[in-house]
Amino acid sequence: MKLGSDLRNLVNRDDNLGQLVLITILVFALMAGLNPEKFLRPYNFESISYVFPELGLLSIAVMIAMLTGGIDLSIIGIANLSGILAGTFFHRVIEAHVTPDGTVLAYVAAGVVIALLTGLAAGLLNGVLIARLHVTPILATMGTAQIFTGLSLVLTGGPAIVGFPAYWSFVGNGKILGLAVPFLLFLAAAVAVAFVLSRTMLGINLMLIGTNAKAALFAGLRRERMILYSYMLSGLLASLAGIILSGRTNAAKSDYGTSYLLQAVLIAVLGGTNPSGGRGTVLGVSIAVLALMFLSSGFQLMRFSNFLVDFIWGAFLLLVIALNAYRNRTR
Amino acid sequence: MRIFYRSETVIAAVLLLAMILIGLVNPAFWQLDNLFGLVRSNVVIGIMALGVLMVLISGGIDVSFPAFAVAAMYLTIRAMVALGYEGVLLPFVMATLIGLALGAVNAVFVHYVRVIPLIVTLGTGAMVRGFLLGMVGASQINIDRMPKPLITFARSELVGIQNGDGTHYGLTAMVVLYGALALAVHLVLRHTLVGRSIYALGGDREAARRVGFDLRWTTFFVYGAAGALAGFAGLLHSGMIWLANPRDFAGLELDVIAAVVLGGASIFGGRGSVLGTLFGVFMLVMVNNSLIIMKIDTTWQRVAVGAIVIIATATTAWRDRKRRI
Amino acid sequence: MSDILIELRNIEKRFAGVRALDGVSLAIRRGQIHCLAGENGSGKSTIIKIMSGVYGPDAGEIVVDGVPVARLDPITAIRHGIEVIYQDFSLFGNLTVAENLALGHELREKRRLVDWRAVHALARRAIDRLGVDIDIEADLETLPTSGKQLVAIARALMSDPRLLIMDEPTTALTRREVETLFHVVREIQRQGIAVLFVSHKMREMLEISEWLTVIRNGCKVAEGETGGFDEASITRHMTGQDIAGEPYCWRPATDDRPPRLEVRGLVLPGGAGGNDLRLEAGEIVGLAGLLGSGRTELALALFGMAPGHGGQVLIDGVPARLSSVQEAIARGIAYVPEDRLTEGLFLAQSIERNILAAAYDRVTRGLVLDRTRARALAAETVAAMQIATPSLDKPVGQLSGGNAQRVVIGRWLLTDAKVLVLNGPTVGVDVGSKAEIHRKLRDLAQTRGLAVLMISDDLPELAQNCNRILLMHRGRLVGEVAGGKASEEAVSDMLRQFS
Q: Hey, how many other C-beta atoms are within 10 angstroms of the C-beta on C222?
């Protein structure tokens, strides 16, 4: 059966994927063992499913940039800017308790579009700088991160924008069929991206370019255009993360989620993405996010401060990397 | 004629041009108190940038140094306060050593485990900052509890001027420290074999190995020095602002890297100089400070800085274009 | 005292079960300019590494100055006076010439500080020894390849070697630079130093060396005074190919169709004067020339990568503006590049992806990949090119040279190619695969009506497989010879005139 052989291919293809799954299971077991009453409660998994999507989307965004050997350090800036633009829009057009419900819904839909377009536009800027002007991705996205955060500051004047409409909150906090809305959104996005990467021109081009940019030139691939599209896709995912984030917290601020950036990069690498390009899967990244969410949730339940969780993430990453290096050497 | 093509000349010219432009918009720029203030702001960032410069030349990158700076600073101050220590020299030694030790951890991963430096330093930076903030929480050491000798030291001035209305400004003596460290790094880079090995490593790793350079020593030197300089700068910073706040320096890494690259260092390695870095840092600090002088709304400052970084890096991309595929 | 400086006797070397060297013996005399000829993968690199102590032989002995050497490692080799200059020179582009020359020495002296005066003095002496003029304060990367090579040689000479081994030294040099190199080599010989050239570039080796040894498949197959060889005979020894079978024969079509490719007055970058060229369907036209003659530039101009200016290119009689690679491919030009590892293949990706790389628009409906069709086309190509592989999903980096080259060629079967340009199509490919690739190319030309342009330094290959051979010199097409047995001599003679 096709599905069966697909799955088999999947697991056989990547040794590291198997190791990752194992690590995830181990982490789960460890956290469950340390804290069975709190960790294993359905409520815990539910809250994970609300927070996981933002980070997951951002990590996938970073992975996409890494496929061509680049990186995107502006994803948080894009996420925040998207939320803030939507919020600003809402404040302009919606008067609480006055605007009729149907109109509010329409406005919320428009807000979603605005946010996503922001992501695309931001990604376009990144793409032009990197693919057309050949600026190194680290420096280009560093600069654009400042610009996006700066624009966010200009729009908000500093404090957070609050008071998003209820429908918007639903995106971050609601449930459909018993599953968290953001989680469903993440699933949809992840499946879509996985599809793009493995079954469309864009995805295959990116893999080839990331493997050998010179050979890509000789094969007639449109390198610059594809890299441009990839950054636009990253931007889109970042803006989706921004929608979910501002929906969940009912607020948007220019400096939310700064620790997410580091975590997203680490997760992308942990998930088997090669920062020099040519290798990376949505599945790998998703599992890595899960592993790290289990880790941080477990430690948070044990009353570790968020900062210590950062410490553990960093240590975890370095540990896994050292492990991989050791294994690859003895192979 | 060659001097006109050197990166340092180009950025010096750009710097001069920028200063003239800013001065035209607001002549208050040229007043001594503003210039002295600019110099003062250069010191801490500049010292850290010297370390980053060496890492970049070696072909690596370091984003952990702000975290190391803060950790070294906070731990040293706490120790000083706890022990009631009154000296100045030993604390600086301690802070430098803490930074050195942390930098060595980076070196271990970069050299032995062979992970790309960006990922390593992201990890170690996160670890250090997370651990520090996790242990310390929201506390900070305020001026009333800061060790007096440190503050006195950091407050010392080369030149002091009294205004008519009683306010005081001066040229900080710390600039001498900065200058001395810059000179030391320059001498190492230019006149010692380990310094040349940094350029060799950044130029062609394999060739460096074949020629016989001890790459392990070079790697440890580079990341260790970056950490040590960060530690030193961190302590100096707390002395200069009379505050030890473990949340300081957030986001600084990218600014410093941009400054070093602006000053002529190549992100691919093998290229860079102390003089260029001094100019680059000055440019960065000046842009940050002068947006205020030019009466640009504070909220637009980030955008302006970002735009400038982009324009500058696009120019460096053009300059580095030969290294592209 | 014997004349022989270093001798390898019956050297055997295995790597993971594969025999790289099988009982090779060779001797280098003092002050001799010796050429070691062989294709990629023939074992010549292994010989260099054994001579310089990087590898140890599995069997046989190494004799230096008449005394067998028990263990040879890189440092001992240098002490015996053996220095190697590899193809990549191992130099630092970002440092000055002086530093490149002197740093190794300073390191060996265990110094900590750099004594710039000593460095410059050392560098000056080293350059003067070569008798060339190079600015030692210049950054190395500002020098052309030939300059860098001279610096590499100067550096090697600093340890007073008795044998200088040069690995593929004339790659990427212009004619004039090769002359300078040879002048330097003769100067080195005058100083009593032996030079071992390892190469497969025949014309230049014939010019400079006194003694020739040919290696094939890990065995020595020929040796003797250079005067006793010519290009064709050396190549034949290197490839082991017998000129069996028919030379390629082509009959023009009877109808009035326009030529597949017609070039009028195309001026290449760096070339002087326009170029005219006609390729009919079914032709396999060879393109011979010395290094730097502009053949690759012509190929890249046709492929839209480095467009020439002026003139016109017509494909099937229709003018084509080949200003980008995509346009060239769309108009039916296909190019198999010189270096398949860096320019042709995506090593970590699957065979299927490598085959489809230039033709994905063929297997996508809209934006989505049609997996069945992709698989089918890839499988068809594998069958058509007779690529030996159990699976389409294997990473192409695991294929042998011959099979990998077939993937690169096969890629163009899917792009409606009309003109196929190949640059060194069988370099680094074993003999059996060579013959098969040649057969395949003839087949493509005849059954699919492709016009094939084959750039090669292997004269027997051109003679056997082309119905005519063009010659290029300094960016211009300057002559033509009919294919077949006699063409080898004719081309060889003409090339000799150019040098």
A: 17
